[in-house]
């Protein structure tokens, strides 16, 4: 009988523990937990998350949206410490009536000291406000005294005057044990809802209705002989119905990253809402259903977008002088593009609407993305070039699934030259014609013409970026190798080199080449055209590699590609959830000439082979040949599409594995 009572008591206590999610009610069991029972490799776990979104009627303001967040997180180790810093994005607009506000922020870190639970509260010195641009700011807060084993907990409310509802996430980079969600929208607002179709985790919702009401007060004054004799307050109650979407979810898997993913958020489980119509009692329906054409027109009509394109007075004199001696559209475009890059520096703020305004940005020499690239469009048009802006959603902003202005956060320039379209972005020093920052290569952009029409254009590059490496090698009797490398980089390969190494001196470049390459010693180094963006990067260096050959018995073994050979396949997982994104098509080619050491002959030479992936989408070629004491190898990898679908992963993994294995095959020498 005692055993039964004990078991029942244990079950009751466990249920009570599992259901006690009130703020501040952190238990010793949560603090002593060493790992997530169902996901032991997790560095942290959301023990509980609650999100409640509803509309509260306030007289004089109307319905105000409130978004209440409560989250409790367990941190298991130091790799989970990044969970202790949180960001809240707020729209601040240009007036008090259009500002979102963060209220009721309360946060506590809990640690176990012996048997005592210690609490450390978030203080004002742990809260920071950062401007994103003139419309947005971010409140960042960092939890105090975070250790391995800590539990952190916070809650806050975002108050918004807007009817638009931000995407609602149901998945994070760490697992979630318990999530409660409730969305209440007044019957007057009709929303279109969409679950992210790219997500692998699909939550289940319950749709119900609930009664609600609000009260309106009015004052009535009795006036006699121009004197107020009495004042009466009248109150009327309005009943309405809330449409309710709710969910109570358990053990939500983490959104796990994979190698070569564009933006993990594109595959996050989330609910997307778009307001379709508004109809108040006794009023006609206001249809807000939109399309990308309407969204684009709204943006173009914005004074901080289309209005800025029409301003020319601030640059006329300078541009007239700049292009006075040239006549071809290509020369004019190149001069103006370089002029803008040198004249206005990017202030690290994104946006498709201007921050300072083009004229002020021009005078001060600094501006956001729109300041710079709308200025470029305007100047090119002034010079007689057919130029138009392209609205873009960067990779970090995700791929928009419904027509909305927030679907874009960037703008570039398109110039029509020689019957084709050239893409330009003047915000970064090392961009060139059709070589954009990689963050902008996100599927499609929306081109807007001067007459207001618009269309989707593809942003993914079609022209291959090439790396060609020529290597001359002398194999020595002491099993070392000496040689010379000549490297030739074009397009995005060259841009990546310039962005990464433009500030490196000669010694730093030599060290970067030697890094993770064993006994490689770079003896001489030179590069050309780092500053001349019209030409490919040329890189040359001499090297000495100790123990390049391995002697076993009376034979010598070595890899034809030496330190250039792939060591392992980066695609190790059996399955893949997301596409592989290589950003741009590329072609890598190695031409290798090897002189055999004195007194040795070839015993075994790797055979030539060709491997293809998905028809013409990818090809790997390995060609081997011998001419006297010279071995010749030509090794190339061509990927003609930058995106490999998850459905093709198994085939691509095998393709890449065969490439790695081929490069690890050995040449075998023996004494002649």
From TrEMBL:
The DUF3857 domain, residue ranges: 66-193
Keywords: Signal
InterPro entries: DUF3857 (IPR024618), Transglutaminase-like (IPR002931)
Iron keyword on record: no
Protein name stated in the entry: DUF3857 domain-containing protein
Signal peptide coordinates: 1-18
Source superkingdom: Bacteria
């Amino acid at each position: 009988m005692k055993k039964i009572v004990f078991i029942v008591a244990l079950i009751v206590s466990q249920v009570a523990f599992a259901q006690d999610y009130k703020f501040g009610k952190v238990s010793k069991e949560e603090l002593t937990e060493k790992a997530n029972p169902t996901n032991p490799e997790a560095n942290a776990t959301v023990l509980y998350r609650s999100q409640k979104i509803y509309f509260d009627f306030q007289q004089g303001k109307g319905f105000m949206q409130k978004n209440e967040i409560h989250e409790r997180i367990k941190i298991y180790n130091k790799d989970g410490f990044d969970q202790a810093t949180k960001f809240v994005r707020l729209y601040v607009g240009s007036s008090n009536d259009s500002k979102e506000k963060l209220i009721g922020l309360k946060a506590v870190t809990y640690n176990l000291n012996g048997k005592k639970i210690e609490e450390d509260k978030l203080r004002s010195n742990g809260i920071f406000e950062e401007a994103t641009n003139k419309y947005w700011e971010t409140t960042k807060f960092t939890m105090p005294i975070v250790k391995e084993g800590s539990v952190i907990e916070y809650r806050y409310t975002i108050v918004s005057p807007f009817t638009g509802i931000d995407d609602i996430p149901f998945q994070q980079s760490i697992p979630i044990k318990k999530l409660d969600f409730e969305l209440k929208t007044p019957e007057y607002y009709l929303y279109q809802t969409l679950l992210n179709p790219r997500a692998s985790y699909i939550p289940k919702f319950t749709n119900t209705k609930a009664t609600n009401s609000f009260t309106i007060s009015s004052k009535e004054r009795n006036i006699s002989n121009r004197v107020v004799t009495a004042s009466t307050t009248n109150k009327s109650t309005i009943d309405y119905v809330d449409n309710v979407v709710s969910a109570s979810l358990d053990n939500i898997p983490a959104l796990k990253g994979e190698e070569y993913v564009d933006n993990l958020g594109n595959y996050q489980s989330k609910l997307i809402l778009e307001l379709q119509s508004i109809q108040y009692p006794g009023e006609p329906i206001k249809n807000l259903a939109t399309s990308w054409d309407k969204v684009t027109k709204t943006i173009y009509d914005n004074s901080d977008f289309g209005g800025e394109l029409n301003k020319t007075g601030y640059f006329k004199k300078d541009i007239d002088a700049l292009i006075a001696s040239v006549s071809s559209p290509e020369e004019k475009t190149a001069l103006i593009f370089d002029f803008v890059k040198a004249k206005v520096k990017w202030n690290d703020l994104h946006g498709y609407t201007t921050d300072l305004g083009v004229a002020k940005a021009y005078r001060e020499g600094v501006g956001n993305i729109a300041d710079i690239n709308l200025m470029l469009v305007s100047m090119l048009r002034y010079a007689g070039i057919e130029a138009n802006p392209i609205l873009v959603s960067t990779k970090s902003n995700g791929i928009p699934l419904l027509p909305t202005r927030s679907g874009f956060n960037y703008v570039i320039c398109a110039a029509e030259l020689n019957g084709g379209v050239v893409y330009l972005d003047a915000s970064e020093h090392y961009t060139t014609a059709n070589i954009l920052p990689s963050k902008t290569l996100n599927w499609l952009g929306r081109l807007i013409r001067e007459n207001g029409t618009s269309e989707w254009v593809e942003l993914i590059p079609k022209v291959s970026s090439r790396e060609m490496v020529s290597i001359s090698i002398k194999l020595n009797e002491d099993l070392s190798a000496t040689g010379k490398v000549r490297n030739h980089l074009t397009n995005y390969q060259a841009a990546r080199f310039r962005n990464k190494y433009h500030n490196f001196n000669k010694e730093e470049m030599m060290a970067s080449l030697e890094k993770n390459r064993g006994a490689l010693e770079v003896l001489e180094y030179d590069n050309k055209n780092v500053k001349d963006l019209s030409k490919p990067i040329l890189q040359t260096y001499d090297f000495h590699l100790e123990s390049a050959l391995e002697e076993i018995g009376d034979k010598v073994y070595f890899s034809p590609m030496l330190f250039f050979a792939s060591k392992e396949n980066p695609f190790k997982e059996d399955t893949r959830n997301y596409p592989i994104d290589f950003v741009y098509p590329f072609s890598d080619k190695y031409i290798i000439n090897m002189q055999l050491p004195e007194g040795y002959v070839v015993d075994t030479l790797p055979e030539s082979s060709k491997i293809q992936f998905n028809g013409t989408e990818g090809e790997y070629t390995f060609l081997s040949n011998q001419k006297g004491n010279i071995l010749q190898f030509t090794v190339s990898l061509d990927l003609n599409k930058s995106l490999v679908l998850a459905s093709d992963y198994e085939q691509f993994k095998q393709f890449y594995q065969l490439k790695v294995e081929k490069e690890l095959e050995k040449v075998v020498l023996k004494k002649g």
